[in-house]
Amino acid sequence: MSDGTAIPQHALERLKGLRSEGHPGGIFTSDFSVNEFLLVRKAGFEPVGLCVGSCIYHLGIQYSSWSQNQEMNVLSQAMYHARELAMSRMRSEAESMGADGIVGVELTVKRMEWDDKILEFIAIGTGVVHAKGHPGYKGHNGKPFTSDLSGQDFWTLLQAGYRPLEMVMGSCVYHVAHQGMFKALGNVGNNTELTNFSQALYDAREIAMERMQHEATAVKAEGVVGVDLHEGSHNWQPHIIEFFAVGTAVTPITTERDASTIPDPQLVLSVNN
């Protein structure tokens, strides 16, 4: 895995058992619900198999000023690079199975118990291929497209005349300055905005959003849908927080359809006994 894209031997063996043009007797695997499975097929695509990418990453050391709002550049770069490694390995699996793209991608981060400086980054989604008679779509530079849209949202997006290009993301790890003792004492018993804290969190969110927007521009997308902006501390020191923005960059298939002409999603109900 030194190049960031090599697929482990066990994964290659798993991919050989999946359904493909050269292996029609294989099976497909997916994390789709029943509703998602049917709507993805209705959109003209078939699931091929689960695509997985993993990265265990050691975070470097960076010091911050106790009383200063500032981005933790070393940590920001680490969190972004590790996610990108996991995503690139997931894409490699999609290419190996001949998929047009990946739907329903989930990016998760988990701290390893044996060291608080080590995190595991996992990217997983379902590789899909276009059915016969469907033109199929690819992502940026002819690579498989990636999308965190659900099967229902994927179907609706295509019905609206748009297609996914690539998952885009932005990360910012930020140190929020501590409040001085005299300032803190002056706030005791009062309703007052903590302006330095407000500004720090506002700036950090904007940095993450701006970086996601820059990625969308780089792949020539028209916009980003399904944006999720969330925060996490990952058990770092107090006053250090990450803002992470992620969404799916989209582009028109041909021309945009009038929203009133888009049919309602077909829902399938199931009951578990």
From TrEMBL:
Name assigned to this protein: Heavy metal-binding domain-containing protein
Domain of life: Bacteria
InterPro entries to which the protein is assigned, alphabetical: UPF0145_dom_sf, UPF0145_YbjQ-like
Family as reported in the entry's similarity comment: Belongs to the UPF0145 family.
